[in-house]
Design a protein that fits this description.
9 helices, MetI-like fold, disordered C terminus, single chain, mainly alpha, elongated, about 0% strand
Length: about 270
């Protein structure tokens, strides 16, 4: 029997959004790029346009579903890449200590001293608008805090008794990190990664809103909100629907993060072998 805890609910919502986004080409939808100026800001329930149209007369349902794709990518890719890089950096700094720790952690402290939103906007503005540059900017600002999480977990674990036992058996540094330390710290990093994925989705939508993310005419939730802000009184659904999508998608990642924290909350059994 499935338990309806926050982890399962979050995964269910995320899986539903991912499936709908993947099936977008196979659904009987309007062309998300086709414009009809005579139907600008059509209301909900308009014939052949269930959710109405945007500021250029494009079908909102089609752009809403297609717009979920970049939002999912923005939520997942920076976190996955960030976990890989931060695991390597945090492991080196936390286990080796000495000058590698000083170089890595002091360098990351400089980045952490800068406001993340300002840093993301600056990087995107320098590199130029577009999905790839936005993914790079978001990954760059996520690596320092995720590295610090790995670093703190390794400092906590490396002095435990089972690590000393592994050392007495002749296990090398690489084996101890890969076989003993990382399996006991990755769950914490995954929980943190899920929470920052929600932040990444909101930041990505914000970059698209100000013109530094996904570029027209490609469908994107942040871009759609920008197009609908001029008609908030006349057609509030144009901005509210993609805003609701951003909220639900980011909320699903927060539920997943809470569920992973609940799993880690009980007394953790450290791996010995």
């Amino acid at each position: 029997m499935i338990k309806f805890n926050s982890l399962n609910i979050g995964l269910g919502i995320l899986l539903f959004i991912v499936i709908v986004a993947i099936l977008a080409p196979f659904l009987n939808l309007h062309d998300p790029l086709k414009m009809n100026i005579s139907l600008r800001f059509a209301p909900l329930g308009t014939d052949n346009h269930l959710l109405g149209t945007d500021n250029l007369g494009r079908d909102l349902l089609s752009r809403f579903i297609w717009g979920a794709r970049p939002s999912i990518i923005i939520g997942l890719v920076p976190v996955v890449v960030g976990i890989i890089i931060s695991t390597i950096l945090g492991s080196i700094a936390g286990y080796m200590r000495g000058w590698p720790e000083s170089i890595i952690m002091r360098g990351l402290d400089v980045i952490l001293a800068l406001p993340p939103v300002f840093l993301a906007i600056t990087i995107a503005a320098i590199l130029g608008a577009g999905l790839k540059n936005m993914l790079f900017a978001l990954t760059f600002i996520l690596i320092p805090p995720m590295t610090r999480v790995v670093y703190q977990e390794i400092l906590r674990i490396k002095n435990l008794l089972f690590i000393d036992s592994a050392k007495t058996t002749g296990a090398g540094t690489t084996r101890i990190i890969v076989r003993h330390i990382l399996p006991n710290s990755i769950s914490t990093l995954l929980a943190y990664g899920a929470s920052v994925a929600a932040l990444g989705i909101v930041l990505g939508a914000g970059l698209s809103f100000i013109g530094l993310g996904i570029q027209p005419p490609d469908p994107d939730w942040g871009q759609t909100i920008n197009g609908g802000r001029s008609a908030l009184l006349k057609a509030p659904h144009v901005a509210l629907l993609p805003g609701l999508g951003i909220f639900v998608l980011s909320f699903s990642f927060n539920l997943i993060a809470d569920g992973l924290r609940d799993i880690n909350a009980p007394t953790k059994m450290e791996r010995i072998f």
